Amino acid sequence: MSALASTAPPAHLFSVTPDRAVSALSASPAPAISDRAPTRKIRTLVALEGVGKVFAGRRGQSPVAALEDIDLNVADGEILGVIGRSGAGKSTLIRLVNGLEQATSGRVLLDGVDVTAQPESAWRQARRGIGMIFQHFNLLSSRTVFDNVALPLEIAGASRGEVAPRVKELLALVDLSDKAGRYPAELSGGQKQRVGIARALATRPRLLLCDEATSALDPETTRSILALLARVNRELGVTILLITHEIPVIKEICHQVAVIEGGRIVEQGDVFEVLTRPAHPATRALVSSVVGVELPKSVADSLLPMPVPGGRTVLRISFTSENATAPVVSRISTVVGVDLNILAGRIDSIGERPFGVLVVAVPSHGPALAAVQASLRSLALETEQLGHVA
Amino acid sequence: MSPEIIRLIAQATLDTLAMVAAAAGLGTLLGLPIGVFLATSRTGELLAAPRLNLGLGMLVNVTRSTPFIILVVAIIPFTRLIAGTSIGTGAAIVPLTVAATPFIARLVEGAIREVDHGLVEAARAMGATPLAIVRKVLIPEALPAIVLGLTLAIVSLLGFSAMVGAVGGGGLGDLGIRYGYQRFMPDVMLVVVAVLVILVQAVQTVGDRLARRLNKRLRTA
Ligand SMILES: Nc1ncnc2c1ncn2[C@@H]1O[C@H](COP(=O)(O)OP(=O)(O)OP(=O)(O)O)[C@@H](O)[C@H]1O
Ligand SMILES: [Mg+2]
Which of A70, A92, A135, when mutated, tests ligand 1's pocket best, judged by the most ligand atoms within 8 Å of its CB? Predict the structure, then answer.
């Protein structure tokens, strides 16, 4: 906590001035992020404009279009997650942002500066202001934890006197002070990724790129790493662009999400909106396992398209706003005088916002159904008619 | 065995050690950068220079496929140019180095190629220059394998050094041939072989230990 509060990102990081990254290391303590946040102008840190990437085919193979017409903006201070299946182009996309790949069409802008065709030497400078963490951690096995974290500082040309205190501070931040002298082979996966995060933050970048940072970790460890990333974002003000194929990662810490499929972004927006109202089939497929509910198999199998006499209608009610925690069932039962049969349900949260789904059965005939639907509407709840059962 | 013979054996051992140490040292000095270059200069690699890579690779192959004894004779003019003479223990260091360099280069190349490409990616993402990547990532990460390769090179050099007697180089091999074989003194032959066996054992043991010490990957607490 205190380690975080005493640090602040440099004023401008995608600079091409050779000694920026280094001088930033010795920057005097700046006011805590929370003090500055209200005055900070929201700006776009990363912008991809109509970006395409075609890999030239190796001998005799046809070229691969890995990305097509990608438009993506990452606002300063937010966490944007790109989700998609294996081979969708996620890694290629994130690697465009720090110049490990070059776009073959469109433009890449960092903090408003067009970097699409900048030479490798300029990229080297820019990369010192962009941290990156990896699925397989990519720590040097020959270096201790301490020396791994020191590596980007050495590369940036920091003096020995600057390196040691900064590394200590970073290890405290990721809670690994007691492992400073250990080698990566002696650490667990979660600890390795913490080292990776400390290393990525060493030069005080304003942007952190995460390529499947939790895909090699178990769910428990994943949660702790995500919590750390959320803290880095919140307390250090580091903007995060992450890619993943796991919807829980998006749900847990992202503010914005982009869904990528076959090299194209098929849907993007606020995480809560996209997850609760997925429009594209690819998004629906990703989302269903986490924010959807499964109907009991016996009910799903007996769903009919038309109501039957004496049967019931199956409704899906989504709770997406403050009403998510409202006592809807009891209210409807008392107000409308109809008993709802609950078939399935789930209460969850996306970010900090609660979200729920309830599948209920209501008598199809008589005033009951209409009354229930009217009541649900008055509560501003979204309902969807799934079918009918006998 | 006469004191004279014992003195000869001691001298020959020192000669062998001097030749092998010098050739291994010079071979490493030359072979390490060549090996690093070979490992990083194909198309799309860190120091991409495909033509130079191809040319250097061919030169390395030619040298490596020439039998050592032929190499020794073939480069006599070169040896004379470098050492001032083509005869003697000092001059023998030249062909030994010429043989060791491409051998070490290939071993270093192999060791560097084994380094996880993800580490190069990570270093690039930090803004490292190609030279910094070589110095801070590739060589340190490949070091245990390089040490094992050098051990192998030194053992091979001990074998090669036995052949330089053909051009007037001294050393154990020369002594073994001249006294053990030509003057039919089997006890001298036996001692020469025994000393070589001990040297090979010692080099291998030290190399293995050092490589294990440097390897931080498989630590069993
Ligand atoms: N260097 C390359 N040369 C040729 N094709 C490539 C190269 N890198 C990636 N591709 C192709 O581009 C497409 C997208 O690859 P990418 O690695 O970006 O996918 P991904 O979404 O990260 O997948 P994963 O989840 O498996 O990591 C794939 O079809 C892949 O084969
Ligand atoms: Mg990938």
Answer: A92
Q: Is residue B93 within 8 Å of B23, Cβ to Cβ?
A: yes
Test A156 with B124 for CB contact under 8 angstroms.
no
pLDDT values of chain A reduced to their tens digit, one per residue, 390 residues: 334 333 444 434 444 443 333 333 333 343 333 444 444 567 899 999 999 999 988 777 889 999 999 999 999 999 999 999 999 999 999 999 999 999 999 999 999 999 999 999 999 999 999 999 999 999 999 999 999 999 999 999 999 999 999 999 999 999 999 999 999 999 999 999 999 999 999 999 999 999 999 999 999 999 999 999 999 999 999 999 999 999 999 999 999 999 999 999 999 999 988 988 888 998 888 887 666 667 778 878 888 888 888 888 888 888 776 666 667 777 777 777 777 788 888 877 887 788 788 888 888 877 878 888 888 888 778 888 888 888
- The amino acid sitting at A144 is T
Pocket test for ligand 1, best of A68, A83, A86, A90 (most atoms within 8 A of CB): A90
Residue B109 parent element (H or E): helix B89-113
First to last CA, chain A: 58
Phi, psi torsion values for A137, nearest 5 degrees:
65, -45
User: B152 to chain A, minimum CA–CA distance in Å?
Assistant: 22
Distance CA A288, CA A41 (A): 36
Return the bridge partners of A304, or none. A388
- DSSP symbol at B167: G
Q: How far apart are CA A144 and CA A165, in angstroms?
A: 16
Looking up residue B120, the CATH number of its domain turns out to be: 1.10.3720.10
Q: Whose CA is nearest to atom 12 of ligand 1?
A: A66
Which chain B residues touch A156 with a CB distance below 8 Å?
126-127
Tell which atom from ligand 1 comes closest to the C-alpha of A88.
Answer: 21
Q: Distance from B6 to chain A by nearest Cα, in Å?
A: 46
Domain range for B175 is 3-220
pLDDT, tens digit (0-9, with 9 covering 90-100), for B25-75 = 999 999 999 999 999 999 888 899 999 999 999 999 999 999 999 999 999
Rounded Cα gap, residues A329 and A340, in angstroms: 7
Measured at the alpha carbon of residue A191, what is the angle toward residues A84 and B145, in degrees to the nearest 5? 95
Is A19 near chain B, with CB under 8 Å?
Answer: no
Which helix (DSSP H) or strand (DSSP E) does residue A256 occupy?
Answer: strand A256-261
Using an 8 Å CB-CB cutoff, list chain A residues near B136.
151, 154-155
Partnered with residue A256 across adjacent β-strands are A80, A270
Please tell me the distance from the alpha carbon of residue B23 to that of residue A325, in angstroms, as a whole number.
Answer: 80
Phi, psi dihedrals of residue A239, rounded to the nearest 5°: -75, 140
Among protein residues, the one with the nearest Cα to ligand 1's atom 24 is: A86
Cβ < 6 A, ligand 1 pocket:
A 55, 64, 66, 84, 86-92, 245
The DSSP H or E segment spanning A65 is strand A64-75
Signed CA dihedral, A319, A324, A326, A330: sign only: positive
- All structural domains of chain A: 5-289 (3.40.50.300), 297-389 (3.30.70.260)
pLDDT in tens, B171-210: 898 888 888 888 888 899 999 999 999 999 999 999 999 9
Q: For atom 7 of ligand 1, which residue has the closest CA? A: A55
